[in-house]
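ok so i was messing around last nite and threw this chain in just to see what happens. nothing serious, just curious
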Amino acid sequence: MRTTVRQAWRATVHLVLAAVLSFATIIFITVLMITVIATLAVVGAAMLPETVLVIRRIAGAKRRMVADWTGQEIPEAYLPIKGRLRERLRTAVRDPGTFTDLRWMIAHYFYGFLGALALPLWPVGLVVDGVWQGLLGREAVVLPLISRLADLDARWSTALLKPSPKARLVERVEELTETRAGAVAAHGAELRRIERDLHDGTQARLVSLSMRIGLAKRAYDRDPEAARKLLDDAQDQAEAALTELRHVVRGIHPPILTDRGLAGAVRALAASSGLDVTVGVDGGLEDRSEGAPEGGARPPAAVEAAAYFVVAESLTNAVKHSGAERASVELARLPAGLRVVVRDEGRGGAGGTSQAFGSGGEAGGSGLLGMQRRVAALDGTLMVTSPVGGPTVIEVELPCVW
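result:
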């Protein structure tokens, strides 16, 4: 009987809050009407985006109430209202989420007062169920009706507030637009870096090499020793130019990925990182390291390169900033993707306590931002957990077809 009463009381609280919210929306209709009239009169057009934001907050409060009752969140899909007034007006009017919220608000005027039906059930339920369940040990019949009313409110709210397929499509297009912009920006920055490395490094060394060879040719007949020294310098310049070219090539696509696969390349990174790094590889991944078992699958080249970059950047950050002595890397094959987890036992404080970055998020710091852009370009997700005092855990999931 105590459990029944507790559940009925929880349902009653949910229904009372729903009634309060419904009453608030009835009052809000006055603001909505003023906004519509002012917008039609042009003078109050700036009120419309702000009113839509208020409607979103009211709908968000209802979503949280339903999630507290059912344990299941109602997803939301809104376009960001930002930019100049004309852009804000266009977004507020054209966003499918606005009409979804308005439809719910109108319906909630009527079903939001289901709590009024629960009040008379309490005295009847306490008497009937007190005898029926408390004394006779039978199942309660009246008080559970209050929970059913709360369930009914939650089902209707879920059906009305759930984003439409059009809203999800619009949100997805917006995400892909931001992802493409980030990928284009990252690609442009990469091209500028490669151009700068070639121009300031390799090209300068090749020009110096050509000059030294020319001087050696001129000095060969009259001063063979000087010519030999110039040729030795030219050889050193050629070796330095080759080293820089290899560095540039590794920045474009590390050759070790082609030779040893992702698992082998990560093992090489771990060995040269300066930390005590343990590497765990799922049996479903191909590993061409010496002594590794044969077999396994290999992800696409773009996914391999992104995962390799994440591990390299994470270990570099751990060496530079975390003060850690140990780290671990885990590679795991998922049914529809690849998971990479890098953990260090350092001081933490990287990117906040716990942040998730998808295609729409943005990580703090140039290293995390670079990782986020690479991951978002492949429609992946990046999670950074780094409380002050550590540890720092960077988890990346990259979708791919095996």
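not much to say yet. Residues 165-219 form the longest helix (55 residues).
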